[in-house]
Design brief:
By secondary structure, the chain is mainly alpha-helical.
Length: about 70
């Protein structure tokens, strides 16, 4: 552990927990944004459905992460 964490104890742990949570939320959000941008292009229906499904799945992942954080 860093000297900072040893000196600041609980505050450092909260910061580390917040940083980890933010990183976990960023991955599905990035996937949703990328899929939504691709849907703006003129794509075959099958590709549109695939990207829409991906958005729904990643939204569910975000929801699950947030629910775990609120426990």
């Amino acid at each position: 552990r860093s000297v900072h964490c040893r000196l600041h104890g609980a505050a450092c742990h909260r910061h580390a927990h917040f940083h980890a949570a933010a990183h976990e939320l960023k991955s599905p959000l990035t996937a949703i944004q990328a899929s939504a941008e691709l849907l703006q292009d003129d794509l075959p229906l099958e590709d549109q459905q695939q990207f829409a499904t991906h958005i729904v799945q990643q939204g569910q992942r975000l929801q699950s992460l947030i629910e775990r954080m609120l426990l």
